[in-house]
Amino acid sequence: MADKNLISRSLGVTTAEVEKGRLRFFAKAIGETDPVYLDETAARAAGYRSLPVPPTFLLCLESEGRNPQAIVEDVMGFDLGRILHAEQAFEYHRMAFAGDVLTFDTRVADVYEKKGGALQFVVQQTRVTNQDGEHIADLRSSLVQR
């Protein structure tokens, strides 16, 4: 059972370099057809300095360098067999591009229960910055244990 004392606890700070090949692979996997996500020449012609990061790709990078199972089991105290992904939200402040090195600073934002404790929620908040310290995005996700 998650404890309210987890609120504000750091779940770690990680960094990830945004690679062109991974961006192209992700864009193809999600069915993106806009050439700015696939062709650097098209991206530059559109005014971008390189391939832009597709919006939900930040979630892929955020999980790198962590052990999600250890966080869920050891920090949150949840049983992997009883959890569900409850919510995901993104708030963007500026674009990220291939070649950027992004830092992901994740903390527990909230812990609460519903249905008399039958459902336990842990909300994570991640601040994403680039190599210049510019605020790229805030990611928010919730897990629920039933």
Automatic annotation (TrEMBL):
FAS1-like dehydratase domain: residues covered: 7-138
One Pfam family from the record: FAS1_DH_region
Name the record gives this protein: FAS1-like dehydratase domain-containing protein
Domain of life: Bacteria
